[in-house]
Amino acid sequence: MRSTDQVRSPRERMLISGEEARLLRRDSTFFEVTPRFSSAVPDSIDGSIPGAVRTGVESDLSAPLTELGVMPLPARSPLRRRMLAAGVRADRPVVVFTRDSFEFSTVCRAWFVLRWAGFEDVRVLDGGLPAWVRAGGTTTPIRCSFSARVEAAEASEVLRSARPSTSGVVAVLTARMHEVARFGTLLDARPVSSYQGALDSPRTGHLPHAVSAPWRELIDDRGLLIRPSALRKWFLARRAIGRQQVVAYCGGGSGSAAVVFAAATLGQRVALYAESWAAWAADPALPLELGATPSLSDELDPDCAVPPGR
Amino acid sequence: MDEHVSIVSTVHGRMTDVRGRYNLTGPGFELLSDGSVRSGGPGEAASSLDLLVASLVSCALNAFRQDFLHEGEPDRTVEIFARVERRVEGDYLGTLIMECFIDSVDHVTADELVKEYKARCRIYNALKDSLPVVFIPHTSDAFD
To answer: A216 or A148, which is more confident?
Structure first.
């Protein structure tokens, strides 16, 4: 049962059930988000949520491919203007969903980009379109698509997002990742096999000191975000709860967005590595580690004794 | 010689073949502990700070498992995630945060459990001024 508005938790503000989506339908803007790659699961539902607008996580909600990653973050203001011009209202909730319950990373990336563009009330439909249908929601043919491909965000825009006063989502660039690796927590949202890498494959493995945090572990066998206690334990076990800097990365920017979203439902801020693994791995000068066990930064000071000379 | 004094803990510490790695044994247990990489050790096995935290976690697990239970009631299931937060290059020990997942209690009882632990744990009371401890109980009614 949801709390009253005054005491709604972050999870209650960010994640809605099929039943809640039905109640919100007339007062919200719904986006059906299509993934980068077509789902292998046959689509058994005809139509979509009435009034929903279709948009592509890569084709429409990311900038054209640049050196700033596989799905570069779009410039905020142009994206916001395009969305407002298309009828998205800043004073109404925006609900994002996918047709496939298990495309959690796709819907979280859409959430991230909309929050990035400055829309405050963006909610993820837990379980996607199937959850809507299970809750008795009707479907109609989708009539409208939204395409707002704008230029990529400048590096300065990404840097500004990390200011302490920022209340929205945060993205970081490669230069910041070195510092986070030394003193904070890096979360690798890719599959375990990608994290571990292979001795005979150059430029595989994970960023130094990163912890394996596969985003697929965040959803249960129905495609729903796992329960709060299990979620919190998952992050605690990965040194990802606390006041230290925490950054998530993945191959292209969706898996890491899932980790960012899930952490936000707990009230924990996790930043997103904007340039993603692809950019790091492409630079032979940047270090990588192999294996299943994360290393600890040499610069951490776990000794009881203060180092001599200090 | 004082017949009212007993030995309540013994640990034997020895060097190993690995520089900065130590073997710690006692009746019925054996541990490895490493000095940090900064101090010239391997920095892999439990650090001295880890062992200190482990002692408080162990005591808390034992307390939360059974305190205030009535006769015949089953032990509680407890899981603790502990971390020490410290500013980079800080000279102080840090702040210990203990996130405690306790089944079969409500929030009022969780607070009482923490209060009882703080009153009775000798290690906590010996260290609390140098290592402030923040308890974050998670109980069945607050989650899920």
So the answer is: A216
